Amino acid sequence: MGQLVPKISFQNKKLRNMRTWIHHATIVNEGRKFVGSVVIENEKIAEILENGQTPTSPCDKEIDATGCYLLPGVIDDHVHFRDPGLTHKADMATETAAAAAGGVTSFMDMPNCNPQTTTLEALDNKFADAARKCLVNYSFYFGATNNNADQLAALDKTHVCGVKLFMGASTGNMLVDRMETLKRIFSEAGMLIATHCEDQNIIRQNTELFKQKYGEDPDISCHPLIRSEEACYRSSSLAIQLAKETGARLHVLHVSTARELELFEDRPLGEKRITSEACVSHLFFCDEDYKTLGARIKCNPSIKTKQDRDALRQALATNRIDVIGTDHAPHLLSEKAGGALKAVSGMPTLQFSLISIMELVREGVLTMEQLVQKMCHAPAELFQIQGRGFIRTGYQADLVLVNPNKEWTVTPECIQSKCGWSPMEGQRFHAQVEKTFVNGSLVYDNGQLHKEVRGQALTFRRAL
């Protein structure tokens, strides 16, 4: 990344010396749940109050949050906003609107757009575009290829969230499959490497077998058998081996199998150099859902068995899974037509990620404190994001107010993603996001988006 793009924050300029008091909320933060208040002053959290305390000076606006949770804004470490070049299905403006409506205040976007984010020029252009379009905070991965390892040393590691490495072919065909290149990237990246792990040789062999048996486009139920458990485990094992050999900082994305969980340590995040992410899609769906949702839930790695899903859910209460992301990947429904080979992979889930995981809280899979750890605190700690991810005095006021007792059903009319659909359509949820604040600005308020708000570029402390 070259010159840092100046922050553009139109609404924040209107909030100079403004104080907002959010009171009587149930605050969930840093392992605690308590009734209290937060005062926002300009962009930052000015006061955190409990035991009936009142603000130290008058406030311009009061919000009664009785009955609602007040959480740090969700940080999603894994999205595909399709911008630039694929904006017929999504763009930064529409997808950050979906983020805001879902309580997501920061995101990290992947490089498989058009042009791919595999040069310093493309990366700089993406940051400049984001400053103009994004309603929430942003950063971007630099995409590794078989031919661009020389550029890794030039990355601004305080503003680029990480290097994305496709060790399995997926949408965009950015596969890195040369062992000498893989070793060089792991040795020289000098920052977090986020990997998509699927063994391409196993997938290729399975594809040929299933085509011989079922024709050119086998049924969607074959998808988890083609992109199999073994393909995931073999590739994740290789990534971890390379990380251990080189001392690289590795983050394995979208773990999808129970078997892969054996590869990760159940230790506190701060003690690990190899970490893992589980995605909402693999936590919410299983292979039984192909019968009703078909290719709508086709993604890479594939949605696998109920046993795999349940093992991933159980791991949320441990330190084997460090963060929850989405792999939000919009496509037009017309592009989802077909079976295991012809339908494109990816689904839009960003707007419903927080409330989907709140359903798991309702079911007793994890606690609200654990949800906040996996979706807010841990991403901030894992990526070393400055001033975000926690409700702390002096931190940026990225906050979400969510009603945990408001039942509603997802309809197409409420979907903010440009593609206009979601696999969550028809799903009845028991919680609803009411307000989302980004850098102290109210960007989402009970169904209304304030589209003049602009997020900020994330900054990172880098101590590898």
UniProtKB/TrEMBL annotation:
**What is an annotated GO biological process for this record, any one?**
purine nucleobase catabolic process
UniProt entry tagged with the keyword Glycosyltransferase: no
Required cofactor(s): Zn(2+)
* Alphabetical list of Gene3D superfamilies matching this protein: Metal-dependent hydrolases, Urease, subunit C, domain 1
User: Which SUPFAM superfamilies does the UniProt record give?
Assistant: Composite domain of metallo-dependent hydrolases (SSF51338), Metallo-dependent hydrolases (SSF51556)
Kindly indicate where the leader peptide sits in this chain.
none
Q: Which UniProt keywords apply?
A: Hydrolase, Metal-binding
Where is it found, in Gene Ontology cellular component terms?
cytoplasm
The molecular function terms in GO held by this entry are: allantoinase activity; metal ion binding
Domain Amidohydrolase-related, first and last residues per copy = 69-443
| Function according to Swiss-Prot or TrEMBL | Catalyzes the reversible cyclization of carbamoyl aspartate to dihydroorotate.
Q: Which family does it belong to?
A: Belongs to the metallo-dependent hydrolases superfamily. DHOase family. Class I DHOase subfamily.
What the entry lists under PANTHER family is as follows: ALLANTOINASE
What's this protein's name? Amidohydrolase family protein
Q: Which organism is it from?
A: Phocaeicola coprophilus DSM 18228 = JCM 13818
